[in-house]
Specification:
Elements: E1 3-14, E2 17-28, E3 31-36, H1 43-50, E4 56-63, E5 66-67, H2 73-79, E6 81-84, H3 96-102, H4 107-111, H5 113-123, H6 125-129, H7 140-153, E7 158-162, H8 170-185, E8 189-193, H9 197-200, E9 204-211, E10 214-219, H10 221-225, H11 228-235
Parallel strand pairs: 3-8, 3-9, 6-7, 7-8
Antiparallel strand pairs: 1-2, 1-4, 4-5, 9-10
Length: 237
């Protein structure tokens, strides 16, 4: 499958601290790519570097054939990369509908907001029922769905999800991943960060393992689950 996003030896970090070290990865133009690994080993930093929230120290990021390294976050969104951050990150005093519409703030997205809103409601029907509800009164799973829906309102060709299952009950996690899997199967490119490899092993076209900011393994989910030494060493499974 053609690569939509190509990372070539990228390094990034906070101030003088380097968190990512020479990471190279290709994200397919369609389907799910999963970034796995222990907490605190660079997964969130990787998404922040791609979305322009953190400057690169080295390497190149190429999206749809264009070098996007050094671009502002709003320019990267306009190019087609949508980042749904870890946690809820909603506007708590706005309604569900108002939160969703905040995702369509760029002119092109705003022009298509009516159609996209119907697509979000079709994918996440509970949000239609909750559209007038204040975000702070939602359950954790509902807030996570609003976050994903807001990202979809921005359009884009690559949806990046940082730990969509974080802090949720198992039954809600299953519901969230049903939605994510449906997006991937529909042909959308999805890059998801997930600590629990088993949750995405049967869904991802590629899994990439980060340890201490380095890419130490990549391959199919079935291959990873058949490698108990990798699971035990890096994921505590």
């Amino acid at each position: 499958m053609t690569a939509l996003l190509q990372l070539d030896g990228i390094s990034a970090g906070y101030g003088n601290q380097t968190v990512l070290r020479e990471v190279s990865l290709a994200v397919a133009d369609g389907g799910m790519t999963a970034i796995i690994g222990p907490n605190g080993h660079g997964k969130t930093t990787l998404l922040r570097a791609i979305s322009g929230l953190m400057p690169l120290k080295a390497g190149r990021i190429v999206f749809d054939g264009h070098d996007i390294g050094g671009r502002r976050p709003d320019e990267i969104v306009a190019a087609g990369i949508i980042h749904v951050p870890q946690g809820d990150m909603l506007f708590p005093e706005l309604t569900v509908l108002e939160n969703l519409l905040m995702g369509a703030y760029l002119p092109q997205a705003a022009a298509e907001s009516g159609r996209r809103l119907e697509e979000v409601f079709a994918l996440l029907p509970k949000l239609r029922d909750r559209r007038a509800q204040i975000a702070s009164t939602l359950s954790g799973g509902e807030r996570r769905m609003v976050g994903i829906g807001r990202g979809l309102m921005a359009g884009g060709r690559l949806l990046m999800l940082d730990e969509p299952s974080l802090g949720l009950a198992p039954i809600v996690i299953d519901q969230i991943y049903e939605v994510v899997d449906e997006l991937a199967r529909s042909g959308r490119a999805v890059l998801v960060v997930e600590e629990n490899a088993a949750r995405v092993a049967d869904k991802a076209v590629l899994m990439a393992l980060l340890d201490n900011g380095r890419l130490v393994w990549s391959g199919a989910g079935a291959e990873l689950m058949a490698r108990p030494e990798i699971l035990a060493t890096y994921l505590g499974a």
